[in-house]
């Protein structure tokens, strides 16, 4: 069987193995809503644990509905300096998460540019994914949902830590990177693969794995074109959904292999259920401006 046929067949067969969703609790009186949230139950608003507001995330991103403006590109500070080991990937019950430590020369990776005023220090990264029969990015681009979305969470250097930063409109900046399954990735991204390689070791809630070898934060971008992005003001996509986030979502996806994505599908949540479709549903835009920064040839690519 040609490889492409085999791949399609795999995609068709795999959902059968994943359709046995656990039963939802019958007498759900809402008690879990205060202290506990879970993608299996709600996915949409996690039973009220999210704050409500007019600038929630994720949203639908489209070039035609964005303001094309001249804007500085995102600049990356200390993104090409090695991070201080150990780097730990953890299953926190909602995602695969990695705290971003300081670099070997005792500085912190940070970003500036785009809509951001001042420096935003990298705090952590995590992923959102789907299931064998559903793509799991949070934002959609041109009405397309991608297979995986990576978030790199940064905190405004004006504030002492992430919990403090979440209290302010300008507190947090998240970079969003899309991944698209391709059959034969023609690019090999050592940084990302070091992270993906540890996923089988963190299948269970609270399991941790150490990333092997050295890593710079810039390596998780592969060969991403970081000059083209959507940017807007929104919220965290997990409880409490604080409206403290300036989003920068790069418009071009990175390639990812099917085996790498399927490692995400094997993770389990805190109650032992399969941790799949850990994305929040699209939220209303409510007339918020969305800006798009690009180069002319890129616009033609996106509009086809
Ligand atoms: Zn996220």
UniProtKB/TrEMBL annotation:
<dbReference type="InterPro" id="IPR001148">
    <property type="entry name" value="CA_dom"/>
</dbReference>
<keyword id="KW-0732">Signal</keyword>
<keyword id="KW-0456">Lyase</keyword>
<dbReference type="GO" id="GO:0005737">
    <property type="term" value="C:cytoplasm"/>
</dbReference>
<dbReference type="GO" id="GO:0004089">
    <property type="term" value="F:carbonate dehydratase activity"/>
</dbReference>
<dbReference type="InterPro" id="IPR018338">
    <property type="entry name" value="Carbonic_anhydrase_a-class_CS"/>
</dbReference>
<dbReference type="InterPro" id="IPR036398">
    <property type="entry name" value="CA_dom_sf"/>
</dbReference>
<feature type="domain" description="Alpha-carbonic anhydrase">
    <location>
        <begin position="35"/>
        <end position="294"/>
    </location>
</feature>
<feature type="signal peptide">
    <location>
        <begin position="1"/>
        <end position="19"/>
    </location>
</feature>
<dbReference type="Pfam" id="PF00194">
    <property type="entry name" value="Carb_anhydrase"/>
</dbReference>
<dbReference type="GO" id="GO:0008270">
    <property type="term" value="F:zinc ion binding"/>
</dbReference>
<comment type="function">
    <text>Reversible hydration of carbon dioxide.</text>
</comment>
<protein>
    <recommendedName>
        <fullName>Carbonic anhydrase</fullName>
        <ecNumber>4.2.1.1</ecNumber>
    </recommendedName>
</protein>
<keyword id="KW-0862">Zinc</keyword>
<comment type="similarity">
    <text>Belongs to the alpha-carbonic anhydrase family.</text>
</comment>
<dbReference type="InterPro" id="IPR023561">
    <property type="entry name" value="Carbonic_anhydrase_a-class"/>
</dbReference>
<keyword id="KW-0479">Metal-binding</keyword>
